[in-house]
DNA sequence: ATCGTAAGATAGAGGCCCTTTCTTAAGGAG
DNA sequence: CTCCTTAAGAAAGGGCCTCTATCTTACGAT
């Protein structure tokens, strides 16, 4: 150990190491010892900060989420706003979703914590900010606010999350477009039976 | 041990014990030793059948799935068929989904197996059989087959699965009705903006 | 009755989680 | 500059869990 790190720098090194181990070997094979070795430190250093393996995992997840905040797009059309946001989410969140669900599902009986309890950061980082997309679309006269139920608002992101949770990977772009053009937009802006071209904004 | 079980009876006792431990304590706290004790046997008996903890988990999942096959409803209307099936799935599959996702997500990096690879048994047991619901609706003239994309066919079950995977529990019946009346049926049979009453078949 | 096989019992090795103890480096105060 | 405090780094070890080896015993078939 050539140089001792202290405080926040050391903590970041530990969390980055933990994340690397989670993504490389998966939740099942994640070991505290591997994190310690990767971070070039010793066990008490880690346990001074997190009481056990699970708390370390949760801290690594939270740390990674914080480092990957999403911007809210403003493209001038609802379709493009939603697709852009979905593409952003798609390119950064599949891995995170896999690890989060692995941890929460394994501990649900003990903790009662569900993905839905943290689902906003899982997908978008800010629910209120997504509402901005819809407000803008209403202002532009693109959609009728009467059609805008909570379930429909969350629909594209629910389906994207479903993709993550059933494939553990980013979805093909074609799938994002199907979700928006075949399901989401027809529900909001047109005769639902029109198909993709009628649904195009 | 007053009476020795042999063969299939012993194997069923082991698998039932494994399932009981998974549902009671969750995937994270599941131990082979607890299964052995619950089944009233010894470790080599278990390891003669399954090479390790993970294989035992998978066998318990498969055993439980086999014991909970779903019937395909035939109510005379698509709405009732889909709702009935969703209610059946809802009442029997949330727990199974939680355990399956816990195992698969934790091992994804090592195995590459995703829920989608076994998603049919997870939800319905038989994809072709669900297609029968839609064929009947087309025969009855309820829906236009041109509207019936693969993604729309799977939509209610995808959204139900999404409920399971974000709550680890059965969904409220209200949610099932919202999925069908607010999203699924408007896409298939009417002007999507009509709301629940217009969507009712 | 005997024989073969699987069930049941038990001890133990290795790995992992977590804790205790000790040494050492680094930062801050005087 | 020195001294003190605190956290980092090192290492040993206990307990639990997974899994294996070994032995005894029960049960079914012949």
Automatic annotation (TrEMBL), chains A, B:
InterPro entries: Homeodomain-like_sf (IPR009057), HTH-type_TetR-like_transc_reg (IPR050109), HTH_TetR (IPR001647), Tet_transcr_reg_TetR-rel_C_sf (IPR036271), TetR_C (IPR011075)
Pfam families per UniProt: TetR_C_11, TetR_N
GO molecular function, one term: DNA-binding transcription factor activity
Keyword Cytoplasm: no
PROSITE patterns, A to Z: HTH_TETR_2 (PS50977)
Keyword terms: DNA-binding, Transcription, Transcription regulation
Every HTH tetR-type domain range: 8-68
UniProt keyword annotation of Calcium present: no
DNA-binding region(s) in UniProt: 31-50
Highest taxon, organism lineage: Bacteria
PANTHER family per the UniProt record, alphabetical: HTH-TYPE TRANSCRIPTIONAL REGULATOR RUTR, TETR-FAMILY TRANSCRIPTIONAL REGULATOR
Protein name, as recorded: TetR family transcriptional regulator
The species this protein was found in: Embleya hyalina
């Amino acid at each position: 150990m050539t140089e001792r790190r202290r405080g926040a720098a050391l903590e970041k090194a530990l969390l980055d190491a933990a994340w690397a181990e989670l993504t490389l070997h998966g939740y099942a094979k994640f070991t505290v010892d591997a994190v310690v070795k990767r971070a070039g430190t010793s066990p008490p250093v880690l346990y001074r900060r997190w009481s056990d393996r699970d708390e370390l995992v949760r801290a690594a997840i939270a740390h990674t989420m914080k480092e990957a905040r999403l911007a809210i797009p403003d493209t001038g059309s609802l379709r493009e706003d939603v697709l852009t946001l979905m593409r952003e989410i798609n390119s950064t969140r599949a891995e995170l979703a896999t690890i989060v669900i692995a941890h929460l599902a394994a501990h649900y009986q003990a903790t009662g914590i569900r993905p839905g309890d943290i689902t906003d950061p899982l997908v978008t980082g800010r629910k209120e900010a997504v509402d901005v997309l819809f407000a803008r679309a209403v202002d532009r006269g693109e959609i009728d606010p009467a059609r805008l139920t909570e379930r429909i608002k969350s629909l594209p992101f629910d389906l994207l999350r479903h993709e993550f949770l059933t494939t553990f990977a980013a979805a093909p772009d074609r799938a994002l477009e199907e979700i928006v053009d075949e399901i989401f937009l027809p529900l909001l802006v047109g005769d639902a039976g029109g198909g993709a071209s009628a649904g195009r904004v």
